[in-house]
Design brief:
This protein is mainly alpha-helical. The chain has helices at about 5-45, 55-80, 95-100, 110-125, 125-170.
């Protein structure tokens, strides 16, 4: 059998770098949305503007649909940033979440014994951990990028719809 450990480790390092990029993109979006939301909230609080000032009434509906799209953009970016720590298997110990899962409903001594047993089993096939982590990290990256894409689409829809309301009021 060919030893795939070195190649898998290289791919895993690259995947972890890509995971950091995906997290950074989602964090930047979330921060940008916070700034935009703060500006909007400041206008409301100052009393300078309110959606009730929009006329005709269909423009008010367009405004609120734009705000709903903005909320969806925030939600998608927040979901992309949110850490994903669950892992499906407790048959092996490949990361700290397995250790926690093995402790569920057990006292610490039983948990230690079970973790030690699972570690010994995992040590028999060192490549398996890297492969498992590569699969898990790759799936997390794909999910984060899907959420970033959805966030960008929702933000674009929000910008267009709220922009239409602004243009219609200045005309």
């Amino acid at each position: 059998m060919v030893d795939i450990t070195a190649y898998t480790d290289q791919l895993l390092d690259e995947a972890r770098g890509e995971l950091a990029h995906a997290d950074a993109k989602a964090s930047i979006l979330l921060g940008s949305y916070g700034v935009a939301g703060g500006v909007l909230l400041a206008a409301f609080i100052a009393g300078d503007w309110s959606p009730s000032m929009l006329d005709p009434s269909w423009i008010t509906i367009v405004w609120w649909v734009g705000i709903l799209a903005f909320a969806m953009a925030i939600g998608a970016a927040g979901a992309a940033v949110h850490p994903r720590t669950e892992h499906r298997s407790t048959e092996v110990v490949y990361f700290w979440g397995h250790v926690v899962a093995l402790g569920a409903g057990r006292d610490r001594a039983d948990q230690r014994e079970l973790v030690e047993q699972r570690l010994a089993e995992a040590a028999e096939d060192p490549a398996a951990r890297a492969v498992d982590q590569l699969v898990e990290v790759s799936n997390v990256i794909a999910r984060k990028y899907r959420l970033v894409r959805r966030s960008l689409i929702a933000a674009l829809i929000s910008i267009v719809l709220t922009g239409v309301t602004g243009i219609s009021q200045s005309a």
